[in-house]
Each structure stands twice: as structure tokens, then as C-alpha cells.
Amino acid sequence: MKKIFLPLFTLVLVLASQMGYSQCTPVNCLGSLPAYGGICDTMLLTGRVNVPYNNGTGDFESFVITSTCFDAGLISPPNAGTSVRITNVDNFTYTLLPAGITAASNQNSYSPPNPGNIAGCVRFLGTPTQIGVFTPTVNFLADVVVCGFPIPVSNNAASYPLNMTVLPDPTFTGLGSTYCTTDAAVTLTVTGTTGGTFTGPGVTGSTFNPATAGAGTHTIKYKVSRQEGAAVAPAADSMLVTVTVSAPSFTYYLDNDNDGYGLIGFALSSCSSTAPAGYAPVAFDCNDNNNLINPGSQEVCDDIDNNCNVQIDEGLALITYYEDSDNDGFGNPTVITTSCVGISPGVMLLMIWIVMIPITQLILMH
After folding, report:
1. Of 37, 179, 281, 362, which one has the fewest beta carbons inside 10 Å?
2. Nearest-5° Cα angle at 307, 280 to 267
3. Distance CA 130, CA 309 (A)
4. Residue 222 is inside which H or E element, if any?
5. Which distant-in-sequence residues (6+ apart) come within 8 Å of 228 by Cβ?
6. What is the CA radius of gyration of the chain?
7. What share of the chain in percent tops pLDDT 90?
8. 265's torsion region: left (phi>0), alpha (psi -120 to 50) or beta?
9. Alpha helix locations (H) across 221-328?
10. Residue 131 class from Cβ within 10 Å (0-12 exposed, 13-18 middle, 19+ buried)?
11. What span, in angstroms and rounded, lies between the C-alpha atoms of 157 and 164?
12. What is the Cα–Cα distance from 307 to 291, expressed in whole angstroms?
């Protein structure tokens, strides 16, 4: 008699190391399966590399074994026309698993009552350390008999090839949420799976430059794809970060003397409403080495342009002085200067015009 092989069922598996049988509760899903039973569905939860599968609780898949007679051709075309039924399955082994993952069934063997069916389950636990799309296989031995004949055909090798996806970790740091076009470029640092690619406006390699990106809202993406170990295809995932870049709307001026007024020729553009250290929001300081001289200062009687308006001692009371070289109290009416009250300019003598004595009268008096 030819051996009868159970069908192959596709399933996503994420498996974890454990001792003994798995702690899972089988689900009887026979209503959605063929008469000879099988696995309840084809997908397990997707895992992520270096992260405990399903938050450490794992996942499981149920299967149903029946004692119903069925055409062997449904599971083994060369045996079409032969009516068989399953009597027992046991000796479970697991192959092509991603590293860090193991599996265990909730029983060592399964034998459906006659007639009847039984549900079992395999649980998958652990922390996967390899990335990709895997096809791990649950292998077992099945005993079958031809309906109407009591002679069993034992230890038929059978398996459930399964599917499992372990995603990479696309995390990275170094990117803020807001920038100014005047800000310096920043370095993007991969904190998860390496070997991916950064893309987006202003991105060159692993550097983001706000000036190159320009004003606006931009999406920066890090995508990584990897196939490792027994994986049959790569698995890919991406991390997206949205950044807003603004054009500068404030201008500040170098302020060496910290008086709140800067130099017009040393301007700095910024997106911040707060002036950086050493800069002032107002320009036109005519002496940036003296904090008492700036456009906000008041004129004092010192022959200096204190308020940077290109005028000296304007608005103050001025006295006219005449040169008095011989110090006799009478000045030369042709050599004149003016100055603030109380300030005598050297040999210049204070005289009020209305009492100044003409030179011709002085000669007659003598």
C-alpha cells in the first residue's frame, strides 16, 4: 500500500524557545476546513526583530484532526479513489524558523475518536533576531488507515509549511520637528536596523540640511529591507518623521557693548523672536564699543554725538565764546565758537553779545 501524506498548509509563524508543551487553547474550526481537517488559518501576527513576539505573549495556531473518511486524492493525487482516515499524529518537529524562535504543541500526540475529531494547537514564542519572510515548517508523523480495512499505514511523514514575517527596526534619531532655513545641517543616526536609506527634501546620505530643504513641511523617511537566515524574501519597514522648516522673519545686529543697539553692517537673520547672545534687534549704533553712545541715549554737554544722529549737543543751551589770547576778559569778535553752558573752551572767553564793547570804543576810552 502506498503511504498517504497529509496536505501542506501555509501559515505565518513567530516561534519562541520553551520547555514542554505550549500553553495554548485549541480552537475547533472544522466548519471552515475540508472534511479531513487541517490548520485553522494561514497567518500569525507579524513580529519585529529584537522585540519579544506579541509583547512576550506569543501567538498560536490551531489545527483539527478528524476520523472522517475522505478521498486520499484530496491530499495525495496519486492516491485518488482511495478512501482513508487519520488515526494519529505525533512526533512534532520544527524547521526553518528564524533565529530566536521555537515552537511547541499543546500535546505530544493526537488521536481523534471514531467517529469524531480533535483540535490541537502549536504556540510560538521568543524574540526573533533575524529579518525577512520565513516559511517555517511544522513536521509530524501521521498514521492512516484505508476505510474498510483495519490495516494501518503508520508514520507517514507530513508537514505544515507556514509563513512568518519579521520586520526590521527602522528607528533613527537626530531629527527635530521644527527648523529655520538658517539652521545648521544635522546628522541622522540609525538606532535600529542599519543598512537602510534616508530620503526626503534636504537629505544627503545621513544628513538633513534645512537650507537645502527650504521652507515648508517635509517628510523624512528611513527605509530598511533585509533578508536573513532561512528567510525566503526580504521584509521592509520605514520610519517617517515630519519636519517644518521656516524662513527667517527676524534680523539681529552684532552688539559688542550690549547696549541693545547693533552695527548695521553685521546682520544675522533668524526665525526666533529672541535675539541670540551678543546681538540686538535694533541697528545704527555709531559707537559699538561704548554702551553710553547709541540711538537711545540722551545728549549731554560733552561735545560728543551721544544719540548717533550726526549732531553734537543738539537741543542744549549754547553760549558763544570769543578767543581771548591775552586773558584780559575781552575776546576777538572774529574768532568765535559755541559750547554748552558751563564749559569754557580753553582760551575762549565768555561774552554776551549785547554787552560786547566794539573795538573802536575801546581805543577812544584809552
Report:
1. 362
2. 25
3. 74
4. strand 216-226
5. 98, 130, 131, 132
6. 47
7. 56
8. alpha
9. none
10. buried
11. 22
12. 11
The rounded distance, in Å, linking the Cα atoms of 117 and 78 is: 25
What's the grid cell of residue 119?
483540535
pLDDT in tens, 199-252: 999 999 999 999 999 999 999 999 999 999 999 999 999 999 999 999 999 999
| Residue 26 pLDDT grade (very low, low, confident, very high; cuts 50, 70, 90) | very high
Q: How many CA atoms lie within 13 A of 202 on its CB side?
A: 28
Helices (H), the chain: 210-213, 359-365
pLDDT digits over 9-23, tens only?
Answer: 322 223 333 345 778
DSSP SS3 for 361:
helix
- 109 — phi, psi (to 5°)? -150, 160
| Beta bridge partners of residue 345, listed in sequence order | none
Where do we find the cell 544628513? 207
Q: Decide: 307 and 289 in contact? Cβ < 8 Å.
A: no
Distance CA 154, CA 146 (A): 11
Q: What are phi and psi of 237, to 5 degrees?
A: -155, 160
Chain-centre distance for alpha carbon 139: 43
**Where are any strands of DSSP class E within 45-177?**
47-48, 59-66, 70-71, 83-95, 101-105, 109-110, 117-126, 132-134, 137-146, 152-161, 164-167, 172-173
The number of residues making up the chain comes to 366
Of the candidates 121, 120, 122, 117, the one whose C-alpha atom is nearest the C-alpha of residue 103 is 122
- Give the strands of the sheet with 178-180, arranged side by side: 178-180, 235-246, 216-226, 197-199
- Going by their DSSP bridges, the two strands 101-105 and 164-167 should be labelled as unpaired
Written as one letter, the residue type at 178 is T
Contact 262, 279 (CB under 8 A): yes
Nine cell digits for residue 333: 569778535
Q: Nearest 5°: phi and psi at 88?
A: -170, 145
- Residue with grid cell 528567510, as numbered in its chain: 231
Cα gap 233→147, rounded to integer Å: 42
